[in-house]
Amino acid sequence: MTPGSSNPRPGTGQSTVTPDGTEPGAVEWADVQQRDVACARSAPRYGRLVSWVVVLAIAANVLWLVATNSNFEWNVVSKWFIEGSVLKGLQVTLGLTVVSMILGTLLGLLLAVARLTNNRLLSGLAGLYIWFFRGTPLLVQLIFWYNMSTLFPTVTLGIPFGGPVLASWNTNDLITPLTAAVAGLALNEAAYMAEIIRAGLQSVDSGQVETTQAFGMSRARALRRIIIPQAMRSIIPPTGNQLISMIKATSLVSVIAMGDLLYSVQSIYNRTFDVIPMLMVAVIWYLLITSVLNVGQSAIERYYSRGVRRTLSATRRRLPAADSKAAPMVNRPFMHKEDL
């Protein structure tokens, strides 16, 4: 045998080595591993890295321009940010949002159930309500409620078509800026929440409804115990968006002299003429509130998607790891290192 030969010695179980010092079997086995999909690695994404650098540079430049621009008058912003009238307007904004959202959600639930019922009268009336309040601007509705006394100076309770009057009230005593704001926001929100809840109820598998009927559950109990809890996973995200929209929609009540956050800010800059700084005060407060609501919405979404997340986690555990050295059976070659 000549030096450097890679042929095995006759009569022995030992194999010779190649001139570079490796066994032939090791070379072939490394070849197999390189072709194995379990050892695949994604290519470096330099484009994504460059886009991150560009976006961060632009964001930093914008923040620098805003922070160093003297026209924003940040000293005025800090002076009025926690001023008493501003905080009082903030309380009115939060109160209007909570009350209007609760009333709108409850009424929207009733409308959604009416839309899904087999009773054509209830379904038609619910559809007519949704069509009207979604088809007219919220600002117009607020102004309409505030000026209700021009159409109906008094509100009466009695027998219709000219019958005896049992009780009567002055409309201006009933429709104050507060009641007009709550009525306009809640009734408008109910139309949108009805469609959100209806879509969520329809997302529940029909087999669940059939199961409740097989167990003899009433429709109300089936909704409360089975259908609505499962529909919450589809209802929560758009409801969170509606809540954030409601926070911003309360700024419209300033046109009916309701002392919300924007109205308080406007009252201040009408005296001081610091328009931009006072508007920045309102902007920062709105951003802070919506940021807190985003965190709460994410927590509620995680709570109602627990079952789905468990299923996905179990599926991932059953799948082989991407960095595992063991390839799946469908991709693993039927050879071993000892066979080479």
What does this structure look like?
The structure is a single chain. The protein has 340 residues and is mainly α. The protein has a domain at 80-159 and 168-316: Orthogonal Bundle (MetI-like fold), CATH 1.10.3720.10. 67% of the residues lie in helices and 3% in strands. It is built from 14 helices and 2 strands; from the N terminus they run H-H-H-H-H-H-H-E-E-H-H-H-H-H-H-H. The protein has a two-stranded antiparallel ribbon. The longest helix is centred in the N-terminal third of the chain and has 33 residues, at 84-116.
Question: Which terms summarize this structure?
Answer:
mainly alpha; flat; 340 residues; 14 helices; two-stranded antiparallel ribbon; MetI-like fold; 3% strand
The proportion of residues forming helix, as a percent range, comes to: 55-70%
Q: Profile the largest sheet.
A: 2 strands, antiparallel
CATH topology of the domain at 80-159 and 168-316: MetI-like fold
CATH superfamily of the domain at 80-159 and 168-316: MetI-like
Q: How large a portion of the residues is in β-strands, by DSSP E? A: under 5%
Radius of gyration: 34 Å
Elements, N to C (H/E): HHHHHHHEEHHHHHHH
Mean pLDDT: 81
How many H/I helical runs?
14
Q: What overall geometry do the principal axes of the alpha carbons give?
A: flat
Q: What is the level 1 CATH name of the domain at 80-159 and 168-316?
A: Mainly Alpha
Spatial separation of the terminal alpha carbons: 22 Å
Number of strands: 2
CATH architecture of the domain at 80-159 and 168-316: Orthogonal Bundle
Structural class: mainly alpha
Strand order of the largest sheet: 1-2
Low-confidence stretches: 321-337
